[in-house]
Amino acid sequence: MDSEPGPARDVEALARRFEAAEGGMTGRPLAGPELAAHERRRAAAAPPRDLWLRLTLFAALLGAVLTVLYAWMLARQDALAPVDAAGLASYHKVLVPLLALTAVLGALALERATVLGMVMLLAGCGLALAGGGIWLAPAMLLGCTWAARKNPAARLLLGLLLLAPSAAAIYYGLIGGLSFVTGLPAPGLPPQLADPITLAQALAPLQLLPVAWLGGWLIVSRR
Q1: Which of 64, 109, 161, 181 has its CA 20 to 30 A from that of 151?
Q2: Is the CB of residue 136 less than 8 Å from the CB of residue 60?
Q3: 138 and 63 Cβ atoms separated by less than 8 Å
Q4: pTM, rounded to two decimals
Q5: Rounded to 5 degrees, what are φ and ψ at 74?
Q6: Is residue 196 helix, strand or coil?
Q7: 70, 60, 33: which is closest to 124 by C-alpha?
Q8: Measuring CA to CA, which residue among 95, 107, 187, 98 is closest to residue 139?
Q9: Is residue 201 predicted with pLDDT exceeding 70?
Q10: CA angle (142 as vertex; 136, 147 as ends), nearest 5
Q11: d(C-alpha 31, C-alpha 200), whole Å
């Protein structure tokens, strides 16, 4: 006769079958070919890189190549510069390629570190403008737009970077326009605005009003 009652035996048999089934599913390690096939299936199931990011990376790579080529062309003319030819040569031959590389790395870092990637794009393009960095402007615009849409911190930082300089320029433009109209001196204006010839020249900084509006909208708006 069995020493255990019927319900106890049924529960024990059910537990053994469950353990056997679980061990059959997860107890055996995957072999080499099976593991490679499993990794391929996982890679195929992973979502592809965003189209906007791919466009940003392509624009950054193309812009970096064009920027470096243009900087090297400018470096050939540095010997004819009236002052600081050595400094210009170092800027065009060394610093501009490094800034272009910074922009490319920023485009690569956008997906994992959005704020850092956006800052690297802005720094690489902005500091290289005098040496041909205008070719990096499309990548900067694409990357900053994507970052502002996906990351609230990047949106806030971009809004501040747009608002603060443009607001200061608008302030100087208003002061310069009032000084030109009234004929009263306005100390403290930048050199290019200190002695305007026409009213349009005095009010030229007001052209940055849309930039300031965009920066303020990025700060106060929500996703």
Answers
A1: 64
A2: yes
A3: yes
A4: 0.70
A5: -70, -30
A6: coil
A7: 60
A8: 107
A9: yes
A10: 120
A11: 76
